[in-house]
Amino acid sequence: MISPPSNLAQLRQRVDAIAGMTLGDLAQQYGFKTPEHLQREKGWVGQLLEYVLGATAGSLPEPDFPALGVELKTLPISYQGTPLETTFVSVAPLTQVTGLSFEQSTVYKKLCHVLWLPILAERDIPVVERVIGTGFLWQPNARQFAQLKRDWEELTEMVALGQIEQVNGHFGEVLQLRPKAANSKALTAAIGKNGERIQTLPRGFYLKTQFTRQILAQQFQP
After folding, report:
1. How far are the Cα atoms of 79, 98, 142, 154, 213 from residue 45, in angstroms, in the given order?
2. Which pTM was predicted?
3. Residues in CB range of 153: below 8 A, 6 or more apart
4. What is the pLDDT of residues 110-139, one digit of tens each?
5. Is-contact 164 191, C-beta < 8 A?
6. Pairing, β 203-207 against β 87-91
């Protein structure tokens, strides 16, 4: 077991040490079994990198490096350096959301300080040959924070008002709320349109690709 980094400098050192490596090389170095494809093992890349970097939170609703307050997010990118998919942030609460503020939310805790790890992950590149890019630490600026807060408040208000079935990926400027479930039988409680309890698919908050594209541009464009 790799011990958690004791400070940001140590975390940066670990991130710099794996930049340019393939996932296959890294997995071999640490004795990780490599899947042929990720359809059934979507979390494999994140699990490998969490292990190598010493993240400890797992699936808990707190940052991956709790002592540092830093969340790890892998970001699959194209040959052109643009995000290939939306970024999962956290599972969304669908009951008892009245009175909850953005600053109390898991989304806020996860996005206050993020370690972004871009990975060249075009569909035609085998998993073992996908290359880890240059990781970087990021915190939302005032504009980004305001965008996230506004979207979270609007989406959470819709949940509180029993409009969960009307919400789809088009809502939200930078943050979206959409189903997150292994299958259609994995139901959870939510608020119905008349305030009653209903059963629906679990939902997750995701960052839209235009937002993560902006973060990458902010970091890498001169």
Report:
1. 18, 35, 31, 32, 20
2. 0.92
3. 102
4. 999 999 999 999 999 988 899 999 999 999
5. yes
6. antiparallel
